[in-house]
Amino acid sequence: MAKSNDKRKHESKRYRINDEIRWMGDVRLIVDGDARIVDISVARKTAKEMGLDLIAIDMNAMPPVFKIASYEKMMYNLKKAAKSNKSTQSKVKEIQLTTNIASNDLTTKANNARRFIKGGHRVKVVLSMRGRELSRREESKRCLFEFVAMLDDVCVPESLPRDDRNRAIVFLKKK
Question: Which of residues 34, 50, 85 is at a domain's end?
């Protein structure tokens, strides 16, 4: 067995290729973006003539879907696409506030939140309350509302602040 076949055994078994395929009958064969229905023996012969792999894409379809391509190249492109999709997902950044935060600290945190939102992220603003602040929740949330008001030019709150034990949480998203 060739070294490349040994490598294939250790990769994820998402697709069956060449001799791993156990199917008799007609298949839908995709070659260079062109699909046609052929017998499995014709598909194997075509793949061998082209010097490429016969890859089982969807065995549950009727007839099953097979593709003639380079297995290594296809897996490389799939991993590359998954990696690029992962990096473009927006992440949630968290900003933590307290009820007696100084105005210059609040401004600094608002500037950071503005930078996160312009970068395409959602922002989770968490207001922590302790002791007497918990008994005066509405008064304590004043700095949270002030913070959201500072950012009203670039974002909108997804909902009203949600109380969670000793915290108030609000998510901000880009306008």
Answer: 85
Neighbours of 144 (CB within 10 A): 20
Q: Kindly state the helix (H) or strand (E) to which residue 80 belongs, with its residue range.
A: helix 71-88
Collapse the DSSP code of 117 into the 3-class scheme (helix H, G, I; strand E, B; otherwise coil) and give the result: helix
Whether residue 49 contacts residue 35, with contact meaning beta carbons closer than 8 Å, is answered with: no
Residues 162 and 168: beta-carbon distance below 8 Å: yes
Closest CA to 147 of 120, 101, 122, 110: 110
pLDDT single digits (tens) 30-59 = 888 788 899 988 988 988 999 998 888 888
Report yes or no: 143 and 130 within 8 Å, Cβ to Cβ.
Answer: no
Mean of the per-residue pLDDT values for the chain?
Answer: 85
Give, in degrees to the nearest 5, the angle at Cα 114 between 116 and 93: 35
Secondary-structure breakdown of the chain: helix, strand, coil percentages, each rounded to the nearest 5: 40, 30, 30
What CATH number did the domain enclosing 71 receive? 3.10.20.80
Number of domains comprising the chain: 2
Cα(164)–Cα(51) distance, rounded to whole angstroms? 61
